[in-house]
From TrEMBL:
Source organism, top-level taxon: Bacteria
Transmembrane segments: none
Positions of the TonB-dependent receptor plug domain: 42-154
Originating species: Sphingomonas colocasiae
Name of protein: TonB-dependent receptor
Keywords in alphabetical order: Cell outer membrane, Ion transport, Iron, Iron transport, Membrane, Receptor, Signal, TonB box, Transmembrane, Transmembrane beta strand, Transport
Length: 724
């Protein structure tokens, strides 16, 4: 039973390259990004980067992270059985069992990634609707110098729309959604209004949305249909104050909610990916509702002094998650023991509410960009407070709480994670075409942990609590060296070496388990080229890289009968990889794009506790993945335009865990077709889309022993939007 009965005891829970792989007429010459904390043209940024604009998301009907992740080269997304949850994987930097994220998530310049075993840091992408988004930037490779902890794989950055201080505008839309095999129809609405309160000085933007996604899972135990129905809703208020050309403040408040009725972990025939009860059949006896809420407050102030400019970024966020799981198979033995054998078929549910509050402050000073030597220095401070309760509650067969029995296990954790960092980077223009740059960051991190655990699983008694207080401190220094050569408007080449790290963490309490584990580190060496040719009718973006990952976190187990899982250091992996995007524009309005990625990261020693052997590829990472896209835009009468598009996202097979793990599932490769069409004018847009045209139900991730998560069924949508 090397899966670890309580492995962590946690219910924790794009594609455009420089040439716009979400096929549209958006040209990379027009896209400006802030990946390096300054505005740059996408095609000139000397790192491996993709950017998806809001227009591209709208055309595809993409509202969830999973809707567009498969079109971004080098990215995979391992979906959780909990709706709205999953692990983001860039370049294969994952071990599938780590509680700590390898890819950070930012909203504008505010970090939202949580840390530690109890925070569920690796399992929470954020879904923002297109009315709120300007674009999504995906930075591949370690970004430790500018962004710090948990960026060893890369970074996903949501850039939101700021308020317009000059013009009044608004938009509204409705959408209908149907899912093959779904229980009823879904749909939603969204609206936005922008008002210049004091024209030229102060503007306010308000937007909101609601969406219901039909459920398609049937519970064969209770007979209920559509048990995985979800609802999303959100509200955002943004304000911009710009009294003159030198000074501005952008502030926002964002609130979103995600409610799910149940999970999607389908029971499998042991040792296979064959559904035991059939496609979309689920067999739990107790309800498993989930609720996830997210709040963000941020303010970014900028002042241009001329030779230098000052930026201050203040952020506060709160993640509140409540996850419930049917733990009857786990708890029946304990209920039988505690009742002296009188009850042998009791039920049980695991409950895991978590609240994470995070404050961050960054201040940086940067030189003007029109100098031969440019530089940037800054300081960063963040503090996270996380409160987590993990408990197992006994139930009778009629679904009522077994009040005669106290909780079989209850674990309460209060933690505080503090990060104090300083960073600097500089760029020197050797010639008009060639430049070199370097950066460094030093971080000091403190992890405070207080735990109170009680229950018969710990001591054989339900009344003896266990207390633990642990403090851990970590230091990390990251660096980057980059050179870029811009031959002309059609050719740019770069080479980059950079490092990143993930802070260590503290394990849940269990007799015999190691208290804490240290940071890991990763160094990337990469070179890339971006080129346009055939009179700008064709373009390529190619990056080749080598990763060297040391001391990554692996799972170990206590020697007792429970085989409790906890994290230690001990892994090493390295390997070559590649990301490619090519675009062809053979005719006016027609764009054809292909992406491909090779994942060569492999472990270099045997790791028996996680089932890894030297030479194994990291789990949830295919050998190859990619996409093909086509977009055709043609003018109609008046100001109307017809847009037709389609795409194929594909991947080779992968494994849910390292191959030697008894719970590892071989997940087959797939090729999924998506289609979209729209007619639009300056004011109106009518669009339709189909995702997963052939209704491919391949299993795309594992969800516990002999359970898996299938690809979402064919989804069709019809929407209309109005702008004013």
């Amino acid at each position: 039973m090397k899966s670890g009965l309580f492995a962590g005891l946690s219910f924790a829970a794009l594609a455009a390259s420089h040439s716009a792989a979400f096929a549209q007429d958006t040209n990379a010459e027009d896209i400006v990004v802030t990946a390096q904390k300054r505005e740059e043209k996408l095609r000139e940024v000397p790192i491996s980067i993709s950017a998806v604009t809001s227009d591209q998301l709208v055309s595809q009907g993409a509202s969830r992270f999973t809707d567009y992740a498969g079109y971004i080269p080098g990215m995979s997304f391992s979906a959780s059985s909990i709706a709205g949850q999953g692990e983001i994987n860039l370049r294969g930097v994952t071990t599938a069992l780590s509680p700590t994220a390898s890819t950070a998530i930012y909203i504008d310049e505010v970090p939202t990634t949580t840390h530690g075993t109890w925070g569920g840091s690796g399992y929470k992408p954020i879904d923002l609707f297109p009315y709120d988004l300007e674009r999504v930037e995906v930075l591949r490779g370690p970004q430790g110098t500018l962004y710090g902890d948990s960026t060893i794989g890369g970074l996903v950055k949501y850039v939101t729309r700021t308020a317009d201080v000059d013009d009044f505008s608004g938009a509204a839309g409705v959408e209908a959604i149907a899912v093959t095999g779904g229980h009823g129809l879904g749909g939603g609405g969204r609206a936005m209004i922008n008002v210049p309160i004091a024209p030229g000085v102060l503007g306010v933007r308000v937007s909101g949305f609601y969406q219901k996604n039909p459920g398609f899972i049937t519970n064969v135990t209770t007979g209920r249909k559509g048990t995985n129905e979800t609802e999303q809703r959100g509200l955002r208020v943004a304000a911009r104050l710009a009294p003159n050309d030198d000074f501005s403040i952008d502030a926002q408040w964002l609130h979103s909610e995600f409610d799910g009725d149940g999970r999607t972990n389908i029971r499998l025939v042991p040792g296979s990916t064959e559904p035991l009860y059939g496609t979309d059949k689920y067999d739990f006896r107790l309800p498993e509702p989930t609720r996830q809420t997210f709040d963000l407050l941020s303010a970014t102030a900028r002042y241009d002094f001329g030779p230098v400019n000052l930026t201050s970024v203040t952020g506060w966020s709160r993640n509140r998650n409540v996850f419930n799981s049917d733990a009857s198979s786990l708890m029946q033995g304990w209920i039988s023991m505690l009742t002296g054998g009188a009850v042998t078929n009791g039920l049980g549910r695991g409950e895991g509410p978590t609240v994470n509050r995070k404050f961050s402050q960054e201040v940086r000073l940067a030189s003007a960009q029109d100098q031969r030597l440019t530089w940037q220095i800054g300081g960063y401070y963040s503090v996270e407070d996380t409160d987590t309760v993990q408990s197992y509650i006994p139930y009778r067969t009629d679904g009522s709480v077994y009040s005669e029995l106290l909780e079989i296990y209850r674990d309460e954790v209060q933690s505080r994670y503090t990060d104090i960092s300083a960073f600097a980077n500089a760029t020197f223009k050797v010639t008009d075409k060639w430049e070199v740059s370097g950066g460094i960051r030093h971080s000091r991190i403190t992890d405070d942990f207080h735990e109170r655990a009680v229950g018969s699983m710990l001591s054989g008694s339900q009344t003896i609590p266990y207390f633990d207080d642990i403090k851990a401190k970590y230091k990390a220094t990251t660096w980057s060296l980059t050179t870029r050569y811009i031959a002309d408007d059609d050719l740019m080449m770069f080479a980059r070496a950079a490092s990143g790290f993930r802070a260590g963490g503290i394990n849940y309490t269990w007799p015999g388990a190691q208290k804490s584990y240290d940071p890991d580190s990763l160094v990337s060496y990469e070179a890339g080229v971006r080129a346009d040719f055939l009179d700008d009718k064709a373009s390529i973006d190619l990056t080749v890289y080598y990763l060297d990952w040391k001391d990554f976190f692996i799972l170990a187990f206590t020697p007792d009968a429970f085989e409790f899982g906890y994290q230690i250091n001990g892994g090493k992996a390295n390997g070559l990889g590649m990301e490619f995007t090519g675009t062809l524009r053979p005719a006016q309005g027609l764009s054809l794009t292909a992406t491909a990625a090779y994942y060569g990261l492999k472990v270099r020693q045997d790791l028996p506790t996680i089932g890894a052997e030297a030479g194994d590829r990291t789990p949830t990472s295919p050998a190859w993945s990619g996409s093909l896209l086509a977009d055709y835009r043609v003018p109609l009468s008046g100001d109307w335009t017809l847009n037709l598009g389609g795409g194929v996202r594909w991947t080779t097979h992968t494994y849910s865990r390292f191959i030697g793990d008894p719970q590892a599932l071989r997940l087959d490769g797939y090729a999924v077709v998506d289609l979209n069409a729209a007619v639009s004018s300056d004011r109106w847009t009518l669009r339709g889309y189909v995702r997963n045209l052939a209704n491919d139900r391949t299993f795309i991730s594992a969800a516990g022993q002999n359970r898996g998560v299938q690809m979402n069924p064919r989804t069709m949508g019809l929407a209309i939007d109005m702008r004013f």
